[in-house]
Amino acid sequence: MADTNNLIVYCEYEDGKVSDVSLELLTKGRQLADKLGIKLEAVVAGNNLKDIEKQILPYGVDTIYKFEDDRLYPYTSLPHSSILINLFKEIEPRIAFMGATPIGRDLGPRVSSALHSGLTADCTALEIGDYTDVKTGKEYKDLLYQIRPAFGGNIVATIVNPDCRPQMATVREGVMKKEGKDSNYRGEVKQMDVNKYTKPEDFVIDIIDRHVEKSKVNLKGSPIIVAGGYGVGSKENFDILQQLADTLGAEVGASRAAVDAGWVDHDRQIGQTGVTVRPKLYIACGISGQIQHIAGMQDSALIISINSDPDAPINKIADYVITGKFEDVVPKLIKYYKKNSK
């Protein structure tokens, strides 16, 4: 099939602000659209959307499809699905992105299923490249490479969607960088008729009350993170990491293995199935360094690995490696820092 159409991002918003993951996807979308020579578009659906374009256009967006209606906020599955399914049938986008958030996880499968397009969830990288079908020998130019860890993180899979459109992917918050293109970028804003894209029965669910619990853990905003893995050994030993974090003014993070062991709460999990962080300093204690964990912290400015195994995979990406038992090393770090910070 001939690909001519554009790349579109579904923009989530809350309290009048477009979510970070949507802005990150617009940044990546602009890069890919430039490579393909196509337009970058965005769709936003909700209420009180006045001036929302001021947040979106600076990312190099050429067209915004704006669906404004009080019934569209808070998010419910049916109307938002109908809007995307019917809009995509009309404009036939080549590529579509959304965040791997609770909303994106609900919306993405509904839209891809209705359009028979396929969907790759939780991508860690998105690129453009060519592909040759091994069975038929048919060559495809400029496909979206949807890259994510697979088989428990033992391999990195590159997934392509040769024939169905749109090529759809979801990405977690923090995986991509968020960078505006031009604060004066001029794009077209299209005010859309909500009733044309939805049915009255899409609005059968009415949200009477809504309570959103804000996370008390701010891993993304912390400049220093002390993270522990299965090698930490116990819940009690995580108290030692907490002491180091308190001394440094840091947050405590963890690998999936430590969370699965019940030593730490899930909201502290870093990696493909947790949060992605970019602190100035990342101290990894007893973390072997599976692909999923590396994906969540590899862009840290400085990485220190404390591990009893000198061949731990994480040591390959660490700036400094301290080989030894963490329960011997960490108390010395605390003592040394306290002594030298007075």
Structure in words:
With 342 residues, this protein is of the alpha/beta class. Helices cover 28% and strands 26% of the residues. A hairpin with a 4-residue loop joins β9 and β10. α3 crosses α4 and α6 packs parallel to α9. The model has no long low-confidence stretch (mean pLDDT 90).
What is the topology?
Elements: E1 7-11, E2 13-14, E3 17-18, H1 20-36, E4 40-46, H2 53-56, E5 63-68, H3 77-91, E6 95-99, H4 102-115, E7 120-123, E8 125-132, E9 139-150, E10 155-159, E11 167-171, E12 188-192, H5 194-197, E13 224-228, H6 235-248, E14 251-254, H7 256-260, E15 281-285, H8 291-297, E16 302-307, E17 320-323, H9 326-340
Parallel strand pairs: 1-4, 1-6, 4-5, 5-12, 6-11, 7-11, 13-14, 13-15, 15-16, 16-17
Antiparallel strand pairs: 2-3, 8-9, 9-10
